[in-house]
């Protein structure tokens, strides 16, 4: 697991948490190791200054060093700013999770 922080003048301006996981042993799934971005946060005053991009680059480099073939993350529906940010970094939709209230 990588926890990387970006510092400016002694203050933490952002952080990313990445985990490595392997595809479960299931004959219907292709075995693969992936990095999963469990969280990315950048302080509001430091957004749009490259902090998030640098943190995601560090996350990708770490996942690759652990044998990861992909970096995966989740973006909630309606979070258009996050979707645009990740799209700009080259991320694409892999699947959708659907829900229904009970």
What does this structure look like?
The chain is α+β, with helices and mostly antiparallel strands and 102 residues long. Helices cover 24% and strands 32% of the residues. It has a four-stranded mixed beta sheet with strand order 1-2-3-4, with helices on one face. The longest helix has 15 residues. It starts with a strand and ends in a 14-residue tail after the last helix.
Summarize the topology:
Blueprint: E1 2-8, E2 11-22, E3 33-42, H1 51-65, E4 70-73, H2 80-88
Parallel strand pairs: 3-4
Antiparallel strand pairs: 1-2, 2-3
Class by SSE composition = alpha+beta
Total E-strand runs: 4
Our measurement of the CA-to-CA distance between the termini, rounded to an integer number of angstroms, reads 35 Å
In the sheet with the most strands, the strands line up as 1-2-3-4
**Count of alpha/pi helices:** 2
- CA radius of gyration is 15 Å
Mean pLDDT metric: 90
State the share of residues found in helices, binned by percent.
10-25%
Low-confidence parts, pLDDT < 50 over ≥5 residues? none
Largest sheet: 4 strands, mixed
Percent in strands: 25-35%
**Order of SSEs, N→C?**
EEEHEH
- Taken from the alpha-carbon principal axes, the silhouette is globular
